[in-house]
Amino acid sequence: MVFIMKRNKITGTLSKDKLKKHKQRVAFHEAGHTAGIYLNNKARRLPPVFFKIVFKGMSGATDTDARPYQTTDDDCIARVEGGRLIEFLPLSMQNLTEHNDANRQSAKDYMAAFDADVINLLIGPLAEAKYVVDKDDELFNRQLINLKALKNYGGSSDLALVDEYLQSFSADEQQKTDKLNELFTAAFDFVNNDANWAAITKLADYIYGASENIIDYEEVVSILEQSVAHFQNRRSKARRHYNG
Questions:
Q1: Where does the source fall among the domains of life (predicted)?
Q2: What is the C-alpha separation between 78 and 152, in angstroms, rounded?
Q3: Which of 101, 185, 200, 236 has its CA 20 to 30 A from that of 68?
Q4: 203 neighbors 155 (Cβ within 8 angstroms)
Q5: How far apart are CA 157 and CA 154, in angstroms?
Q6: How do residues 97-155 score in pLDDT, each as one tens digit?
Q7: Residue pair 51/81 in contact by the 8 Å Cβ criterion
Q8: Contact at 8 Å (CB) between 224 and 205?
Q9: Which residues is 77 bridged to in the sheet?
Q10: Distance, CA of 39 to CA of 44 (rounded, Å)
Q11: Backbone angles phi, psi at 73, to 5 degrees
Q12: Which residues of 31-46 are buried (b: 16+ CB within 10 A; e: fewer)?
């Protein structure tokens, strides 16, 4: 089954300058998703889950992922296909959360995957938000960028998927709210981490300048790993210099 992380449909015609800005925002959005899927899952010691970044030409496109822009043939929009650990959400988690020896480990594994999937969905619009906020010389914080604000950063479809996860999590509204706040905080902290942000930025630049129709999993992983290694090496050199 193929899962697609996609942005909201936007109608209207964009100028060349606005289209460029929009494509930059999309690049950071999808870079956030994929960096989360790979780096966040890896940090949580979860199994790798494959994905790819697909580019959709916007000229003459009619599906909901494309916008009816008047653009040149090389203008496109990127989206992530795949990347979720949970393929089918149960109607209820009651059976998984029953406390017996047979289900305890399954419930633990499921919740680890559940948390990671939701965090990775939230990282996309948060990355786009941080890109915009940084460009505007504003402070990226939770007072300015909260859950409701994510709809301003292509996050409506991501939030709709998150809501599907939460509906299966619990029927209790307070439990759902608490879980969402917990996972939003984790996603925010991931994006606000210097090493992660450097990786997201490097991948976003690559997405924005890409000429191919698909960026494969292995290609994304290589870019992210190179960025992480470069960041760690630079930090090590700075520490050695500081310590004399």
A1: Bacteria
A2: 18
A3: 200
A4: no
A5: 8
A6: 565 666 778 888 999 999 999 999 999 999 999 999 999 999 999 999 999 999 999 99
A7: yes
A8: no
A9: 56
A10: 9
A11: -65, -25
A12: bbbbbbbbbbbeeeeb
What single DSSP character describes residue 69? -
d(CA 39, CA 199): 9
Q: What is the DSSP string of 123-184?
A: HHHHHHHHHHHHHTT----TTTS-TGGGGGGT-HHHHHHHHHHHHHH-S-HHHHHHHHHHHH
* Cα–Cα distance measured from residue 11 to residue 68, given in angstroms and rounded to the nearest whole number: 6
pTM, whole model, 2 decimals?
A: 0.85
Amino acid identity of residue 193, one-letter, is N
- 18 phi/psi in degrees, rounded to 5: -70, -35
**Which DSSP state fits 88?**
S
Q: Please name the amino acid found at residue 79.
A: R
Q: What are phi and psi of 13, to 5 degrees?
A: -110, 135
Length reported for the chain: 244
189 is written with which tokens?
A: 């902290």
Do 43 and 190 form a contact (C-beta atoms < 8 A)? no
Q: Which residue has the tokens 């999993």?
A: 217
